[in-house]
Amino acid sequence: MLWVRDFTDRSVLGLFNMRTTWFQSMNALLIFVLTPMLVALWIWQENRQRGTGVVTKLAIGCFLASLAYGVLVIAASIAGVDGRASWAWTFLFFVLLTLAELHVSPVALSLFSRYTPAQVASMMMGVWFMSGVVGNYFSGVMGSFWERLPKSTFWLVVGAVPLMAGFVVLGCAGASIAFLSSTTLSNEKDKPS
Question: Most buried residue among 24, 51, 64, 167 by CB atoms closer than 10 A?
Answer without folding.
Answer: 64
